[in-house]
Amino acid sequence: MAAQVITVTSGKGGVGKTTAVANLANAMAMDGKRVVCIDGDIGLRNLDVVMGLENRIVYDIVDVIEGRCKLRQAMIRDKHYQELYLIPAAQTRDKTAVSPSDMVRICKDLRADTDFILIDSPAGIERGFRNAIAAAERVLVVTNPEVSAVRDADRVVGILEAEEKGPPALIINRLNPSLVKNNDMLSAEDVLDLLGIQLIGIVPEDETVIIGSNRGTPVVTDPKSRAGMAFRDIGRRLQGQDVPFMDLEPQSGLWNAIQRMAGRK
Amino acid sequence: MMEQISSLVQIKGIRDGLLATFTEAAWEEQRVALLTQIDEKPAFFQGARLAMDVGNQSLRVNDLVDLRDHLSERGISLWAVISESPTTEHTSQLLGFATRISKPRPEETKQFVDISDETALFVNKTVRSGTRIEYPGSIVIVGDVNAGAEVVAEGNVMVWGRVRGMIHAGVKGDRNAFICALDLSATQLRIADEVSAALKPQKDPRPEIASINHEGRLQAEIWKTG
């Protein structure tokens, strides 16, 4: 079966696109899928760091495009999973080194021997973003439950709709259930209500995510991590399985009832 | 031969960068002519901001996306697409291009006079952040107007949905224009030259209509039947 090309994007920076790509790729590799990640952030690469593959880079995507190496040579095999690869971004070039048609061509070449191609988009809505979505068959929009991140996500969804990319799916990252409880953070319902697109997963705030990113071991490999569990679920939903959403409630039903009585909804 | 191709599309400098003016000829030929002209002097066009006046050409999303990507590969950013065709105007609004440039074309004003009060632009989707919809008549939107979106009409604006963005009705000074919506929690409403402050989101939203009242102030009130 030919691969599905999935681009992860957000508009705003720092909401967790790269973390999501690294974790989803690992999650699907754990399920035995053949996965290739492409770092689309030319000039500001960091997917290699989050995946712990920084010191193995010899060739990058710009070398492939400019014909200095074969596609196969730029694919770095993961430390743990035989069927997980990374094509790193170039660090010393900028977005103009890649064009949308280059991305389409690379994805086409990868298709035959891969199940999923995950593209990490740069922040923003300019050239790098256009490159990243050029080949996408499916787009995941990552946002945080913050007004500014949701506003940018809305802009990106608008562009994707205009480009007829099909409806994107939403990942709400770094949700803090107790802040939501106290009305100090937008709830998942608020975000969904605003964006009006399909939800594919909610990832709770979890400090092990940062630790994992710094160590180059994505948190999804930690069976105890709540965020890891959320990413594993999203990975399965991407494979077409029907996985129920996990319960993020921090407090008991009684606490809920008291709050409702106190008029705090 | 070269002369002939170049004359299909005229490129000239304007205040905001470059303006390419298209003729009635087939779109594909003109598209090629434009790109050929650019490829003759790549250094001159590198980094340019380009506006296009496509006249009566009726263009769809794919046409404009394709040309934009070709231009972008040549380091040119397309920012505005001006057209007399409603299809093209709608397409360029969807893609977030400007549909007016600062110096209005002489024939534009004439065209607007002919539009009666009955004319409305019908938008059957949510208007998202960063999108600006402008129309020289009234605008009807079935969907929400999200925060960060702008809707600007010379006539009235009706929204079958929630309003969280900015709406300007009667932009050419019509103080009888109104704005109505199922839920008016806009960041800002404007009618003619009156501006309202942000409207508070309501717990139990009800349809509202905003207009300029007898005292000359912009006011929103709950919609009453009859």
What would you note in describing this structure?
The complex is a heterodimer of chains A (265) and B (226). Chain A has an 8-stranded mixed β-sheet with strand order 3-4-2-5-1-6-7-8, with helices on both faces. Chain A is built from 12 helices and 8 strands. In chain A, strand 3 and strand 4 form a beta hairpin. Chain A is 40% helix and 16% strand. Chain A is α/β, with parallel strands linked by helices. Chain B folds into 2 domains: 106 residues, Alpha-Beta Plaits; 108 residues, Pectate Lyase C-like. About 5% of the residues of chain B have low confidence. In chain B, a hairpin with a 5-residue loop joins strand 14 and strand 15. Chains A and B meet through helix 6 and helix 7 of A and helix 4 of B.
Radius of gyration of chain B: 20 Å
Percentage of residues in strands of chain B: 25-35%
What is the CATH domain class of the largest domain in chain B? Mainly Beta
For the largest interface, the chains and their residue counts are:
A-B, 21 and 22 residues
The structural domain count of chain A equals 1
> Going by CATH, what is the homologous superfamily of chain A?
P-loop containing nucleotide triphosphate hydrolases
The largest β sheet of chain B comes out as: 6 strands, mixed
Kindly state the percentage of residues in helix of chain B.
10-25%
Distinct helical segment count of chain A = 12
